[in-house]
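Appendix C: a fully annotated inverse folding record. The material below is reproduced so that readers can follow the format used throughout the book. The structure is listed first as tokens, followed by the designed sequence.
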């Protein structure tokens, strides 16, 4: 394939290079995948106003997210098992994000550890926290994120229990892959991936292994999550985490106005309107369709960010127009990583920046910070 021009091009390449169980892990949603599809489809329903004969020179995409400068309002979302899309995936993606001037968010369920990522970056990255029953482990994890100089903590609220994703069950997803005939077939057909994976020692959950006690079966993500994640997590735990952390706090996985108000009451710095990329509650509305209502409810009290279904810079602009201060991409950067390693993550960011910049200009605007609903042709969305 010639140089990838779209996120869809990167997805095609990743499908060829990444073993099926890990490609499918990224390209999957819960149950019917209806919410996963809606996240993408609903962006195409939003139409832009074409403006002409206005000055389009000297454009700027610079903005801030939780007070931190970003070269465009797009962060890399936390994604588990990223080091299985490509060897040392989290370290590569973090470096690409740092060079690009956008935040990288490391998942609790990453392959490379907090310390691994800190060892290859020079600017602070963000850390995403899943809350487990073992609060001692959570305290140590937060301590490690502080020691690594992470500049924001993203607490994920929408995964107290794991949604069911059929592909993962059928593929027997595990990290590292279990020695089955099917897994062996998937690996031999991806020799480059295997070679690169043989060249790293990072093949399991770097933040957990050797740090959490009572880890019985970590290779089976589903079983481990069911055993360790805290289904009793509550708003009072968020206050406990906020005090413990003491820095910028972002609550991820808000899809309801009432929950948004409760999140604002905690004094957190931002919320992410998100349905976990359609991977948790299938049948929930798309995140972009909920954004305006949530901005209306709490936009004057807390920064509102959004993720889910962003596949182009146009989608980023639409989200900003509907009131998002920041956006996140999950699968787009994973496809880039699987396709071409660090260069693929950079390519994904470049594609999005280029689309965002040209679209903003053709809407007659020069500064992302001035974008509002006036650039939309159908504001009733
Ligand atoms: C493969 C994969 C793994 C994910 N793992 C995590 C995770 O560990 N923690 C988390 O908060 N969200 C996780 N998410 C959700 C993302 O942070 C984000 O909400 C979602 O990917 C956004 O949708 P998009 O992929 O359409 O951009 C994951 C998403 C994907 C696709």
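Designed amino acids, in order:
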């Amino acid at each position: 394939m010639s140089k990838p021009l779209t996120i869809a091009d990167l997805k095609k390449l990743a499908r060829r290079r990444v073993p099926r169980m890990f490609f499918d892990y990224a390209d999957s949603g819960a149950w019917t995948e209806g919410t996963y599809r809606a996240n993408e489809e609903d962006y195409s329903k939003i139409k832009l106003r074409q403006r002409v004969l206005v000055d389009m020179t000297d454009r700027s995409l610079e903005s801030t997210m939780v007070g931190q400068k970003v070269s465009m309002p797009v962060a890399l979302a936390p994604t588990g098992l990223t080091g299985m899309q490509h060897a040392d995936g989290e370290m590569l993606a973090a470096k690409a994000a740092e060079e690009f001037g956008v935040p990288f968010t490391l998942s609790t369920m990453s392959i490379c550890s907090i310390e691994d990522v800190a060892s290859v970056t020079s600017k602070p990255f963000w850390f995403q926290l899943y809350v487990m029953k073992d609060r001692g482990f959570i305290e140590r994890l937060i301590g490690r994120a502080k020691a690594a100089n992470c500049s924001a903590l993203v607490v994920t609220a929408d995964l107290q229990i794991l949604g069911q994703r059929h592909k993962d069950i059928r593929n027997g997803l595990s990290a590292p892959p279990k020695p089955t005939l099917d897994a062996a077939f998937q690996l031999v057909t991806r020799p480059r991936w295997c070679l690169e994976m043989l060249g790293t020692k990072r093949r399991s959950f770097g933040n957990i292994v050797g740090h959490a006690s009572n880890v019985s079966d970590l290779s089976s993500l589903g079983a481990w999550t069911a055993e360790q994640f805290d289904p009793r997590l509550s708003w009072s735990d968020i206050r406990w985490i906020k005090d413990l952390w003491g820095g910028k706090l972002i609550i991820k996985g808000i899809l309801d106005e009432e929950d948004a108000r409760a999140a604002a009451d905690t004094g957190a710095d931002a919320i992410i309107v998100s349905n976990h990329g359609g991977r948790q509650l299938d049948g929930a509305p798309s995140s972009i369709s909920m954004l305006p209502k949530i901005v209306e409810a709490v936009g004057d009290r807390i920064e509102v960010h959004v993720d889910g279904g962003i596949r182009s810079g146009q989608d980023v602009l639409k989200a900003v127009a509907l009131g998002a201060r920041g956006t996140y991409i999950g699968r787009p950067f994973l496809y880039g990583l699987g396709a071409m390693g660090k260069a693929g993550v950079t390519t994904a960011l470049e594609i999005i920046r280029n689309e965002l910049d040209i679209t903003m200009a053709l809407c007659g605007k020069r500064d992302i910070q001035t974008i509002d609903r006036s650039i939309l042709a159908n504001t009733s969305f």
